Amino acid sequence: MNKWKLAFFILLFSNFLIILISSGLLLMPGEKPPLKKEAEGSKDFAVFKVETDKQTVTKLINDYLKKEAVHQPLTYWVEITDDIKLYGSLLAFGRDLDMVMSFEPSVQQGNVILKVKSLSVGRLSVPVSYVLKYIDSQYHFPKEVQIDAKNRQIVVFLDQLALENGSKIQAEKIDLEEGVISANLYVPLPLK
C-alpha cells in the first residue's frame, strides 16, 4: 500500500478516535457533591448575621410589646440608649402608677438577659425583687419572657420565639456603648 494512503488512514483513524473519546467524555456524568441523608425531622437552615442599631431595635421591641399587650391592663414601652429603660404604668392601690426600670443587657446561649439596675415607681426607688414578683403574679407575659425576681432579671428566650415562617433568631452581641446589636437569623430550608 502506498505510504500516503497509509498516512491518510492513520490520520483519519486518529481523528475518529479523538472525536469518539471526546464525545464519550462529554456525555459522561460530571462530579457531583455527595448527597446528605437528612435525619428524620431535622431541618437545614441558612444562617444570616443581622446587625442593627439601637433605634431600630427600639421600634421592633415596642411594636412587639404593643401587639402582645393588647388584652393587658399593663402598658409599657422601651427606650434603648446607653442602657435599656422600660417605661410604663402598673395598677396598684387602685391607681395607675408610673414605673421606670433600667436594665443592663447581656447575651447567654442566644437569649437575652436583662439585669435590672434600678426600678422606680413614681419618684420612689423600690425593691426590685418585690416589684418583679408583684408584676409576675399580676400580669401575663408571653412564654418567651420570664421574670426571675430572685436574681433581679428578665430573661427573653429568643430560642422559643416563634416566627411565622419557621425562622429562628439567636442574639449574638449587645454592646450599647458601641451601638452594636447583632443576632443570627436561621431560615429553614427548603424555602416555602
From TrEMBL:
Keyword tags: Membrane, Transmembrane, Transmembrane helix
InterPro entries, alphabetized: DUF2140 (IPR018672)
Domain of life: Bacteria
TM spans (from-to): 6-27
UniProt-recorded name of the protein: DUF2140 domain-containing protein
Highest classification ranks of the organism: Bacteria, Bacillati, Bacillota, Bacilli, Bacillales
